[in-house]
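protien #1 (seq + structre)
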Amino acid sequence: MNSRRPDRRDREGYVSLLAMSFAFGLALFGGALAVTLRAYLVAAADETQEIRARIALESAAATVLGELAAGGAVKPHAEVGIDGDRRTVRVTIPGTKVDPARDSPGAVAEAGRTAGLVVDPDFAATAGGLVEVSAHHRLNASREDCLRQVFTYGRGGAPLIDRSAPPEDLMVRAGDQVDLRIQASSGPVLWVRARFTGAETGWRLHDYRLLHGATPCR
């Protein structure tokens, strides 16, 4: 058998192949690193934007609750400017909604039809809240938004408003509850249930639900 020792040209060829392999591997690593970094920056930017949107919604809610605590009249709708954009705040009274745990199955079914929903009264009667009802019926964000506009759990507390008072005198008292629906021109919808504990202590939140991708309920 003939054999020869690698000469200089063979060794130079090996070095060239190693150099090419290293350069190719480095290029692949650099490309992967660039893609990963870009994905991270995009995700971080999206997360930052989502946090800012949520803070703006919470700020609008705090503004309206602060005005009510200071003796402002309860208005069904309010506009709050945050970061150059308008947030629409809708104020509803839990006592005007249907409570599946307290009201009749017929009332629950009728309220569901009003919102364009089919709600199982038996399940809703024992559910732990609207999140559970939404999950059971596999509702998307828009349909859960509709659900929250007609249903509630827990209408307890003092009667919210003296119905005989003129609109400009409708004010909250200690123990009253309100539901707030806050939305910008685009982006998520925030639902907040708040109970007024008194002028000195302010509000206590009992529900907080952020819905992404919700469209206006018909």
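ok now protien #2
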Amino acid sequence: MTSILRVHPHPDGISCTVVGAAGDPSPDQVDPWRTSALGAVDEIGRHQRTHVWVALVGVSPSGMQGSDALGQIKATDVGPLALAPGGVHMREFRGQDRVDSHFITVSHNFPVVVTGQVETYHWDPVVPVAQAQLSRLCALLTLHRGQLWEPRTLPIPQGPNGSVLKIPTSVGPEFPSPHGKEWTGEIPPGTGTWRLPPWVLEAWQRLDDDSELQTALSAYYEAVRLRRRHPSLSLLTFVAAIEGVGMRSVPDATCDCHPECKHRKGVAEKRFRKALKTVLTQKQVKELAGPLYDQRSHTGHRGTLFGSEQVLGYGGHEDPFQVNPYFHFEAVQLGRLEQIAHAVLVKVLSEPAA
């Protein structure tokens, strides 16, 4: 064939033009393109298939020291995802980011294997869908357990004979084991199991149906992730998560200074206070809301930092006569705000859907 096919995209589809080298169009130069185009249209949607993926989630090493006392998760389904115990007692060494520090923390935890599936043509679109599902799952686990949960691997395709996910028994630089015993990752005798509460199991559909609640949960999860390195941004985001819950009962309002005014009233702080009242007394709201919202506004509108991010996380040496200047903000105020955001979200997710 000497002709070519030109494809022209339009907002409502495509059109095709056959272009020849010279002379009038002949059937042998046009008909093969027409037949191929009809065949291609007929094949659309026939090659979608189910891609099964697996990934590992667990307690973040940045938020845990020591051993996970609750043990392994009880196998269950959360929305479209299947959760199963990893069957490994994973040891993890974590050093400081600076090269001049030799401080190492050691943690032990029980990772969870997550399995999901996506209907699509090929693997590339699977990963962003799976990552979004893992983000929601880890947000729910973080909210339930009070510890930061994160994906510990990227989603990978499940093999034809089942999972090909390899769970390491030890992560990080190796050190000699106590008493000369090699770390095998075996589950210790007497290790318990834990179950997810009903509100977590039922949350997936709630979040699918309520985008504002999903936004508030995502903000809470991001605030927990920010807390260690960026405490001021963490406070701002915790406040935003609480506001997001309050938004469900305090809608946008138009200014009523005169009939023709089209400006919107500022209702953000009202939403914050409204959500606080679902878990706090009126007296507690009055004591906490103003200072917390003022700090949120200083950071959000001026870039003011209140925590140890000003000194790159340095809190000073241990000294009985020296108080960490950031302790009150990070441990007291931010810690209290995290507890409140946790309570607000658990309450709304535990209630029957409106």
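The longest strand covers residues 49-59.
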